[in-house]
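About this split. The held-out portion is used to measure sequence recovery: a designer receives only the structure tokens and must propose an amino acid at every position. Recovery is the fraction of positions where the proposal matches the reference. Here is one held-out target exactly as it appears in the evaluation file.
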């Protein structure tokens, strides 16, 4: 009976679960504890078919399946495990010492929401008490089930590890931290990551839905995933006439929806955007262009006029060809380009770049002389984004989170955490071109009700001084980077808005 049931269950699972490394369960000798992140009450249903016969599957009492479903998975032993009753761990410890195998979700009945989640102290101590290794398991995409989306789930099993606790430490707290680190590492090393930023955008569109709004800015421009990718492909076709594959193209643009289209137009065609700091002096920007060997600079006439950057553009024109996006509009609107760009976006053709090749060029501030160019690969940026997803829980509330992005794209913190990470995680982002518009940003926050915000201590202190207490109450996570965060700023936000601030850094290198 067990054979045909397992075979049938595997056949059904093959259509919606992509499993990797599941042989580790069978090949690991002796007793072990398998631990997995927990994003949905049905996570056990994804894990159960791949567990060896005789494995004990410990679940929260509220997630225990019914009698008939347990009878179907008769190669497993289901055990109800209440995280508030430490006494229930003793039978599991005994069975592990006798050679048994246990699989559980160390978050108990709580969900990690795309991150490692909160680890229950008792569950974390189980492998230490029994003296057995831990097999980390990472489940990806079940978090999307909560809003009705059913992307293909990825289950990745990693090699067994031993939880090593430092001597003389609080054993309970040390076990929690060690288990959390183990699951976070499993999430970072999980298979199935896209190779390039363009492929990551296509993947996000496929998971979230092409008709879902993802980018909006202060000008009123609002783009769905489908419109964003189509515009990027159309512009990419036009830009191919002005640059070569692998060429570094200067980008002199503020934080707007149009800038996001330009970036991904370059990603889609294998070009490398060199993000220029328009707030720096003329000499600094020209030095950056020379360092990166930039021959073409993309900008917008409207932005240049509004920001009084005509002298800078005039100087840049001596070393490079300056192209205004407004001048490309007629060519981009040509019916042939519109059709081919739309088709290319629907087909989600891969980027000609590879994971290890340059994705963007950023520049240091130049405090130690001329600015240094820092080449960041697609793999490096995607790994950074994955760290944010796993450690912070950027996937916490699918369909409910929204990022308010006011940081410039030429800074690593603003580019990666505030802009790329949300849109590639299915989180809509609202872009505002200047972080110095304190009152305007407070008004925007009151209107759009964001849940995520990234800023520097200086900017956050400014918002805190001018905003009404209700303007930022929708925020659940605020990160300060780029400079140390002062305690006065932290207290201001906590007392006025009831929002805690977290320290982060955005090192360009």
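Reference sequence for scoring:
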């Amino acid at each position: 009976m067990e054979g045909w049931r397992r075979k049938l269950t595997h056949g059904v699972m093959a259509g919606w679960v992509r499993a990797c490394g599941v042989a580790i369960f069978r090949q690991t000798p002796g007793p072990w504890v398998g631990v997995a992140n927990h994003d949905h009450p049905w996570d056990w249903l994804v894990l159960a078919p791949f567990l060896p016969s005789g494995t004990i599957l410990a679940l929260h009492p509220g997630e225990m399946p019914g009698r008939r479903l347990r009878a179907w998975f008769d190669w497993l032993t289901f055990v109800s495990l209440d995280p508030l009753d430490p006494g229930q761990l003793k039978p599991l410890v005994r069975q592990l010492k006798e050679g048994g195998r246990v699989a559980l979700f160390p978050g108990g009945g709580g969900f990690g929401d795309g991150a490692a989640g909160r680890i229950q102290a008792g569950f974390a101590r189980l492998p230490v008490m029994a003296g057995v290794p831990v097999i980390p398991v990472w489940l990806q995409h079940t978090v999307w089930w909560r809003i009705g989306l059913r992307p293909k789930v990825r289950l990745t099993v990693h090699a067994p590890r031993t939880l090593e606790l430092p001597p003389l430490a609080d054993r309970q707290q040390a076990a929690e931290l060690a288990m959390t680190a183990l699951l976070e590492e499993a999430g970072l090393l999980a298979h199935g990551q896209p190779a390039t930023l363009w492929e990551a955008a296509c993947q996000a569109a496929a998971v979230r839905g092409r008709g879902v709004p993802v980018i909006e800015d202060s000008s009123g421009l609002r783009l769905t995933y489908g419109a964003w990718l189509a515009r990027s492909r159309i512009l990419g076709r036009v830009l191919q006439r002005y640059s070569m594959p692998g060429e570094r193209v200067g980008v002199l643009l503020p934080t707007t929806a149009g800038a996001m289209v330009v970036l991904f137009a370059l990603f889609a065609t294998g070009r490398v955007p060199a993000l220029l700091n328009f707030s720096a002096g003329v000499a600094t920007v020209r030095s950056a262009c020379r360092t990166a060997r930039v021959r073409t600079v993309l900008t917008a006439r409207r932005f240049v006029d509004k920001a009084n950057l005509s002298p800078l553009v005039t100087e840049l024109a001596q070393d490079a060809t300056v192209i205004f996006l407004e001048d490309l509009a007629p060519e981009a609107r040509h019916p042939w380009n519109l059709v081919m760009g739309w088709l290319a976006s629907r087909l989600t053709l891969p980027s000609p770049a590879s994971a290890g090749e340059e994705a963007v060029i950023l520049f240091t501030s130049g405090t130690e002389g001329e600015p240094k160019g820092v080449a960041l690969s697609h793999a490096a940026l995607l790994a950074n984004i994955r760290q944010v997803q796993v450690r912070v829980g950027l996937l916490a509330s699918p369909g409910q989170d929204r990022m308010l992005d006011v940081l410039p794209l030429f800074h690593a913190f603003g580019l990666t955490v505030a802009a790329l990470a949300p849109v590639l995680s299915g989180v809509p982002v609202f872009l505002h071109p200047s972080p110095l518009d304190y009152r305007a940003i407070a008004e925007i926050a009151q209107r759009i009700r964001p849940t995520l915000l990234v800023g520097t201590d200086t900017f956050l202190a400014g918002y805190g001084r001018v905003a009404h207490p209700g303007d930022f109450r929708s925020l659940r996570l605020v990160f300060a980077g780029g400079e140390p965060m002062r305690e006065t700023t932290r207290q201001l936000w906590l007392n006025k808005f009831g929002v805690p601030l977290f320290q982060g850094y955005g090192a360009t290198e």
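Annotator remark: Residues 171-188 form the longest helix (18 residues).
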